[in-house]
Design a protein that fits this description.
- This protein has helices at about 30-35, 45-55, 60-70, and strands at about 5, 20-25.
- It is of the alpha+beta class and about 70 residues long.
- It has a two-stranded parallel ribbon.
- The protein is flat and about 35 Å long.
Length: about 70
């Protein structure tokens, strides 16, 4: 088991990882860029990665993450 979450525009199968885990990719840099976050040389990707983690695992709700961010 396990989960590997990668910030990448490539598909999960394009990453040849020697692990027995579910591999998921999210283009967090692209998401940050589309929303005008950060600068051309520094894009904050933490929120996009967190959203992907919530979607993939379902461990917490998007609403609870949003509420925590707003605090």
């Amino acid at each position: 088991g396990g989960l590997v979450l990668i910030n990448s525009s490539k598909a999960p199968e394009d990453h040849e990882l020697p692990v027995r885990a579910k591999v998921v990719t999210v283009n967090a840099t692209g998401i940050a860029e589309r929303h005008g976050l950060g600068t051309a040389t520094s894009r904050p990707v933490n929120t996009a990665i967190l959203g992907a983690l919530v979607r993939v695992t379902g461990l917490v709700s998007f609403e609870s993450v949003e509420a925590a961010i707003r605090k």
